[in-house]
Amino acid sequence: MKVKKLKTLLIKIFKKHGLKDNHAIISSNALINAELVGAYGHGLSRLKMYCDRISKKVINPKPKIKIKKISQSISHINANDSIGFVAADIGIKVAIKNAKKTGVGLVAIKNSGHYGLSGYYAEQAVKKNLITMIYTNAPPAVAPHGSLKSLFGTNPICFGTPTGSNIPFILDTSISMINRGKIRVAARNNQKIPEGVALDKFGNQTTNAKKALEGVQLPIAGYRGSGLAWMVDILSGVLTGGNHAGKVKDPFDDFTGPQNIGHLFITFKANIFQKNFNQRIKENIRTIKKLPKIKGVKEILYPGQNKFMRFKENSKKEINVPNIIKKDIELLLK
Amino acid sequence: MKVKKLKTLLIKIFKKHGLKDNHAIISSNALINAELVGAYGHGLSRLKMYCDRISKKVINPKPKIKIKKISQSISHINANDSIGFVAADIGIKVAIKNAKKTGVGLVAIKNSGHYGLSGYYAEQAVKKNLITMIYTNAPPAVAPHGSLKSLFGTNPICFGTPTGSNIPFILDTSISMINRGKIRVAARNNQKIPEGVALDKFGNQTTNAKKALEGVQLPIAGYRGSGLAWMVDILSGVLTGGNHAGKVKDPFDDFTGPQNIGHLFITFKANIFQKNFNQRIKENIRTIKKLPKIKGVKEILYPGQNKFMRFKENSKKEINVPNIIKKDIELLLK
What we know:
The structure is a homodimer. The mean pLDDT of chain A is about 95. In chain A, about 60% of the residues are buried. Chain A has a seven-stranded mixed beta sheet, with helices on both faces. Chain A has eleven helices and nine strands. The longest helix of chain A has 19 residues. Chain A is α+β, with helices and mostly antiparallel strands. The two termini of chain A are about 20 Å apart. Helix content of chain A is about 40%, strand content about 15%. In chain A, helix 1 crosses helix 2 and helix 4 packs parallel to helix 5. At the A-B interface, strand 3, strand 5, strand 6, helix 8 and helix 9 of A face strand 3, strand 5, strand 6, helix 8 and helix 9 of B.
């Protein structure tokens, strides 16, 4: 399907579910971006879920979003159970504005929902010559170190910086061995997942995606990954006023109330300490790319480069919409 | 050796090498703290190295440290090749002051050196009810993903937060599978290192600590760990004006010039968004501690708890000074 046609359909669907024009556009853009960068677990596979949550009144289609200015640098946003895309879009824009004005921005959001890819918001800040760090929590998927039960979300750590080129450095890494979205896609398509990334509900290793969804995802690097997940839960949940300690509801399975996810956006000017930041980072990347490579590696890539290339490549083509999602779209348009 | 006696000796040694009284005290306290928390790779095993660097004029014993105030929140410090402990001590104190005044602090340091444990500085901020994130780079030890050669340091990621109790939450995690300091201690004591944490200079797995020091340390979680190490290099090196991209000299082996390590301190008030932060984090920790545990696990610990317990335990006892270090001390006092 052509991007333009798909976008028109998505906007129509979101508006039909009660979203305001600009909120429908923001949400559609975010979903299409996920498809274009190849992050299918955050793209169309979630469309029906978002609409179901609106229909069941656990996403508020007409939120009254309140922005509380604590200082020129610091803002606190109550998203009033909006769709996560809209809350995050406002959040990163306020964080950009604050950093542009004072050098540094710190923006916390509460009462939000799943917002897709952190990297998508990081790119916006990087385009304005800011460095950014973004944290959000998610429903239980990963067991704290020493525990038998999932509690932490896949809690991504996101860092973005300008590079002096048009390809931003965007590290957007889950602290679980595998992204939960990828397991969902595998489960939908009856595909296997890699070994060593998840346990079934009995605590045994599994490559069955459906069993993994019922079980526990493993954190990266044992207690270190568990500590990083805990850090993200504190920064995005405890600090902001959002849910934390395993209380974020699974958006696919639990319609008993809003998710109340929290997000934290930190932004600062890349050239605040060194006027020639762009030159310095270019040199950094150049030096690392020149290192001797492992056999078979053509180029040492920085985080975000691959995604950028996929976006460029996929933007030239039509978007492949699986039959199962075509059916979702048909039903949601009715 | 009693802590008090050891401290007197260390201060005497540092002063003999030209450090001012208060700088000698700061440096001695940092080394003793590392011993007390059981981080021996950052403790007395480095005393001779610091003194050698002063003698060989690659650490400046009488630095003129300049603090440039960019805003009420943001400061840039030129440490003038001071011993790292002193630069970091000033850095965290400025970051605390800025955050106390405006809610958020952002402090970059350049022309510094190895400062020991990030967590030691994080604790200072946490005691003032601040959340903190601290980044520093280090000499090449870890190969970027896809490369055959070390370039990133073990580049720790450090995060600290108040917990509503007297035991702070301090995540201070290297992005390498093993701390370089630990390999040094193992090499000095002819001990083996675990499997899967390092390669020798030919790219083969090794458990020989001396061979590992000549080779490459492995990052946690493959490309994810490599990305995190790259992030730390940018935040502490590229951004601050410090060395980066593998240019930080090994403090033990390379006396051709100062290290010019950079550090970044981010601080903000823990209760800036939620007045009841302490209550919220207590609930967070309580919930996680109550989870069902893996067989053999007595308690789910948060990062920093173990270190705090070791500190408390070790503070009651004398410090065990290995013979090899006793000899260092004797020589350095001459």
